[in-house]
From TrEMBL:
Gene3D superfamilies for the chain: Helix hairpin bin
InterPro entries: Helix_hairpin_bin_sf (IPR029012), Put_N_fixation (IPR007774)
Coiled-coil intervals, chain numbering: 4-31
Source organism: Sulfuriferula nivalis
Protein name: Uncharacterized protein
Record carries keyword Coiled coil: yes
């Protein structure tokens, strides 16, 4: 089991990744229809990052953080 500081660091890193991927999705949407073929790829990465972030936040909460 991970200690609280390790989980907090993981949440921080995942939050940064999720935010960057959210911005990638935002930028892609602004440029549409240019790059339309990347919609699924970018959306899947953003979805996966946010799912990992939510799970890490649950682990942090369960650990008392």
């Amino acid at each position: 089991m991970e200690d609280l500081d390790t989980i907090k660091a993981k949440v921080k890193k995942l939050n940064q990744q999720a935010t960057a991927l959210k911005m990638d999705l935002h930028d892609l949407s602004e440029d549409l229809p240019t790059g339309w073929e990347r919609i699924m790829e970018v959306a899947q990465k953003a979805y996966d990052a946010h799912a990992a972030l939510i799970e890490a936040r649950k682990a942090l909460s369960a650990a008392g953080g």
